[in-house]
Amino acid sequence: MASPLFLSFFLRHFLVLPRRNILTSAAGGKCDLLLSSIGISAMHMQLLYIDHIVIFYRTDFGISNISLPARICRNNLKVTALTNDFTAHSVEYDVASNSVRPLMVLTNTWCSSGIIMPQGTLAQTGG
Ligand SMILES: *[C@@H]1O[C@H](CO)[C@@H](O)[C@H](O)[C@H]1NC(C)=O
Questions:
Q1: Could you report how far apart the first and last alpha carbons of the chain are, in Å?
Q2: Closest residue (by CA) to atom 4 of ligand 1?
Q3: Residue 21 has pLDDT above 70, yes or no
Q4: Range of the domain at 41
Q5: CA of 78 to the centre of ligand 1 (A)
Q6: Number of domain units in the chain
Q7: How far is the CA of 65 from the centre of ligand 1 (A)?
Q8: Which of 33, 58, 63, 65 to mutate to test the pocket of ligand 1 (most atoms within 8 A of CB)?
Q9: Pocket lining: 35 vs ligand 1, CB cutoff 6 Å
Q10: Which of 73, 75, 89, 105 is deepest in the core (most CB within 10 A)?
C-alpha cells in the first residue's frame, strides 16, 4: 500500500492539471485607438462569443454620425426628437476586420440591459 507521503508526491508532480492561461494576448496592459469614431456614443455594449461587440446608444438625442443602409429609416411618431431617423443608434464592431456596421433599433435603448444566452443569443430587454 502506498504511503500518504508517496501519494502526495505523486499527485503534486504527475497529476498536475494543465495550466489555463487566463490572460489573453489583448491583456498586455496597453490601450490602442482602433477607430477614430464608430458614429455613436457607447452607452453600453456586449461582447459576443464570435468576437463581435454590439454597442448601443440612445435614440432620443437626435441623429447619430452613422447612417443606416440606403433607404432604411426608423419612423416613430412617438419619438419627438426625430420622427424620421435615417441614422443608426447601435453598431456591431468586428474585432477581426476592425470595422463597424450599423444596426437598427426600433425603440429607445436607454435604460435597457442585455444578456448573452448559453447558445450565444443576445437578449436585450427594457429601454
Ligand atoms: C458626431 O460628429 C460631431 C461633428 O463632427 C462631433 O462633434 C460628435 O462628437 C460626433 N459624435 C459621435 C458620437 O461620434
A1: 66
A2: 65
A3: no
A4: 34-126
A5: 25
A6: 1
A7: 6
A8: 65
A9: no
A10: 89
